[in-house]
Design goal:
By secondary structure, this protein is α/β, with parallel strands linked by helices. The chain has 22 helices and 31 strands. Strands 12-13-11-14-15-10-16 form a seven-stranded parallel beta sheet, with helices on both faces. The chain has a six-stranded mixed beta sheet with strand order 5-2-1-4-3-6, covered by helices on one side. The protein binds adenosine-5'-diphosphate and zinc ion (ZN) (2 copies).
């Protein structure tokens, strides 16, 4: 006898509410997860649409109380059913519960009672509005004057601000509407996402290489066989232009597209470029929007009001009913992997969603991930290369500065002599400079120069970071301590922050170049809503000469006036205790270098490092991706790391460190026994060991790593362990999580 767990109302926050139904004999073979069914529901047994999320062998309720599924709903597969089936796949591939997977793929409706938000928008041009203003002033229409003055200062104001603080009555607003001066926008979600004053951008005509890619992919669509494609194009080769053309062609065929970007900071720039082509038929989704705003965008997508949805990872689940293409820009970025359960990778999940719906997938990067490039070489993805920048613009010239030599000559500054010289030159020429620090955080950790003591978080066992306000903060749990002037261990007064952060660099740069206008973009300066966008648009409007920042300034931004990029400490990403170190460094350096010389002037890059001989740094300076891939792959093969092997991490967390250790040992033994019995072969197991951050929020963490050439074998290990855990009550006091092919160390 089989039973099906069914959810009835998926548009609701509470997807946990599952109802169990009996599967009639005649449906047993046919029924599967994600299917739409009709079931008797409620007191009146009204026939209601539901979705099967799980099939089980045993009844969880008294048999007599379980109703039977009436039939499979054959009114066509809805996008919800498709996403639910995808959730099931996610759960199988990455672990976690069905409920966690469902919450990942389904949009959540906001609780009722939300008041509609209205916004007043200036419709008339500035000059027309100013003219009207003068006219109103003359006629002493004071309410209209107040309204126009406010709108000339800020082209969008909340309706309530006008009727409240500005004392402008609804009838005055209606009159202004009648004159075509203002418009009232209802519902904040749909339009307010698009800024009113968009910078102009000229439409481009694709060059031959770009055109060939578009044609090849469109041909596959016309044959009804779109596949997965990888566009490896050097920075500035015009990949985005290719994406836009592809999507426009698909839109003309009635197909919708999802554009995934690696981080929120890129939303604005990307959206602007797409807006020029698609106008109101493009929208964005991201986590800074309220649940209600997001839900509204999902609804617009479902109603067919959009051709393109742009957003980070989660935009992958946009409920387009005629999905044509999922496009993933900067596909190598680690942010495409979820850091919460289910720890899905958006790339694999995109390929799976596309496979199920007959859509295509385009991955694009100047530095493809080892995984994707290996797959492209193996023929799983079709590979396209754009080897040149558009309009014969040259790639920048890179030079490596050895910081050890710099120290020997007595220069202790963060800026090498060569970099200072070049910055000076660019300032004279009124060109722009990017200074890039490949780490997050402020001034790094605090240590004693006398004895080496490092200040650490008592809960998380990580070093505390020094902040400007005289405090040291834990970046995991937020624990704060006041910075002391004397070492608590040896009494030395040489206690200070170690290594430079972006703030420190800003200070140094301002001292050295007092006339330069400097902007800083990091975690602190972008915390505010729109923080990213403000800094980016200020820099691209040339309101500053130098932009200092972390990772977030190098990803995909296009600043034509930048002719110098300084990479201040290339080593910071190299020795992170994680096997991705060389790959990450190569990617960061190439991307950073890619920001130089995107306009008319040729660009130059200075890479400062303590390890100038490292292949990751050498090959990045030469911008030789192919050579890097080969060398890195040899290392991965030797060490049995991905992409040659797959990797599964099991994380065991417990408040009781002894108990957690015991559980981890026990699970390791289970796997060991299975290997010995021949149930799994060729499995490599490492650990258990302390996680690299062994204690977080008073939880002790142990990790076990498994490696195997076949992904499915690791899924079986996970399934067996999950099953074992669920059968043993002792495990209630520990949390066990799985992570396949982790992007960062644990
Ligand atoms: P990528 O995404 O590969 O870094 P972009 O698509 O951002 O490259 O292109 C870089 C710049 O070149 C952009 O300003 C873009 O408008 C311009 N561009 C792209 N394709 C062409 C073309 N065929 N002709 C002229 N300019 C182009
Ligand atoms: Zn000390
Ligand atoms: Zn902490």
């Amino acid at each position: 006898m089989a039973y099906a767990n069914v959810i009835i109302d998926i548009s609701h926050e509470n997807v946990d509410k599952v109802f169990q139904y009996r599967v009639p004999k005649e449906l047993e073979c046919e029924l599967s997860c994600g299917m739409q069914v009709l079931v008797p529901f409620g007191k009146g047994n009204r026939l209601t649409k539901g979705y099967v999320i799980e099939l089980v062998g045993e009844a969880q309720y008294e048999e007599s109380r379980i109703k039977e599924i009436s039939r499979i709903d054959s009114s066509g597969v809805s996008v919800e059913a498709e996403l639910i089936a995808l959730a099931f796949w996610i759960r199988t591939q990455y672990g976690g519960t069905m409920n966690q997977a469902l919450k990942t793929v389904l949009p959540v409706k906001q609780k009722a009672g939300r008041k509609e938000k209205r916004t007043l928008v200036l419709l008339a041009s500035r000059s027309a509005a100013e003219q009207k203003l003068a006219e109103f002033q003359q006629k002493h229409h004071t309410a209209r004057v107040r309204l126009l003055e406010a709108l000339l200062e800020e082209p969008r104001i909340p309706y309530e601000l006008a009727t409240g603080k500005l004392h402008v009555s609804a009838s005055v607003i209606r009159a202004a509407e009648g004159l075509g001066l203002v418009a009232v926008e209802r519902g904040e979600a749909s339009k307010s996402l698009i800024p009113t004053e968009l910078p102009k951008e000229e439409a481009v005509t694709l060059n031959r290489e770009q055109q060939q890619i578009v044609e090849a992919i469109i041909r596959d669509f016309e044959r009804g066989e779109p596949g997965a494609y990888l566009i490896h194009g050097v920075t500035g080769s015009g990949k985005t232009a290719v994406y836009i053309e592809l999507i426009a062609r698909l839109a003309a065929m009635g197909k919708q597209s999802i554009v995934l970007i690696p981080e929120i900071a890129l939303t604005y720039q990307t959206m602007v470029r797409f807006y020029h082509r698609f106008g109101e038929r493009v929208s964005i989704l991201n986590s800074r929007m309220s649940a209600g705003e997001r839900y509204d965008q999902y609804q617009r997508a479902k109603r067919g009001e959009l051709d393109v949805m742009i957003g980070p990872r989660s935009a992958l689940f946009t409920p387009f009913s005629n999905l044509g293409l999922i496009l993933m820009d900067e596909e190598h970025e680690t942010s495409y992997k979820s850091e919460t359960v289910p720890r899905y990778h958006a790339r694999e999940t995109a390929v799976e969603r596309a496979r199920r719906t007959g859509a295509g997938v385009v991955l694009g990067s100047a530095t493809p991930s080892m995984e994707s490039y290996a797959r492209a070489k193996a023929g799983q993805y079709r590979l396209f290369e754009l080897k040149n920048r558009v309009q014969q613009r040259p790639l920048p010239e890179c030079e490596i500065v050895d910081l050890r030599a710099e120290l020997k000559t007595g220069n202790r500054s963060i800026l090498s002599g060569r970099l200072q010289e070049l910055i000076e030159d660019r300032l004279k020429k009124k060109q722009q400079v990017l200074l890039f620090l490949n780490r997050r955080g402020m001034s790094g950790f605090v240590s004693c120069r006398g004895c080496g003591h490092v200040f650490r978080c008592p809960h998380c066992d990580v070093s505390l970071s020094q902040h400007n306000n005289g405090k040291m903060v834990c970046h995991y749990c937020g624990y704060t301590e006041t910075t002391v002037k004397q070492c608590p261990v040896c009494g030395s007064r040489y206690v200070s922050g170690f290594k430079a952060g972006t703030q420190k660099i800003e200070t140094v740069v301002k001292e050295r170049f007092p006339a330069a206008r400097v902007l800083r973009m990091d975690f602190d300066t972008t915390r505010k809503k729109d923080g990213y966008e403000q800094i980016l648009s200020a820099f691209s409007n040339q309101e500053a000469d130098i932009l200092i920042g972390t990772q977030m300034i190098v990803k995909g931004h296009d600043f034509p006036k930048v002719t110098l990029v300084g990479i201040l400490a290339a080593d910071l990403s190299l020795h992170t205790g994680d096997f991705h170190g060389a790959e990450r460094t190569f990617q960061l350096l190439t991307q950073a270098a890619g920001r130089a010389g995107r306009g008319q002037e040729k660009g130059r890059v200075v890479i400062q490092t303590y390890s100038p001989e490292h292949y990751g740094i050498q090959l990045a300076a030469r911008q030789d991706y192919e050579a890097f891939f080969e060398q890195e792959l040899a290392y991965r093969r030797l060490m049995k790391y991905p992409p040659v092997f797959h990797m599964l991490v099991m994380l065991v967390a417990s408040r009781d460190s002894m108990f957690g250790s015991l559980c981890a040992e026990l699970l390791a033994k289970k796997v060991q026994q299975a290997v010995e019995k021949g149930k799994v072969s060729e499995l490599v197991m490492i650990g258990p060991a302390d996680a690299s951050v062994a204690k977080v929020k008073d939880f002790y963490k142990k990790v076990i790593y498994f490696k195997h050439e076949e992904y499915v074998q690791l899924v079986r290990v996970k399934d067996a362990l999950e099953e074992f855990i669920s059968r043993h009550k002792e495990f209630v006091d520990v949390t066990v999580q799985f992570d396949f092919n982790p992007m960062n160390g644990f």
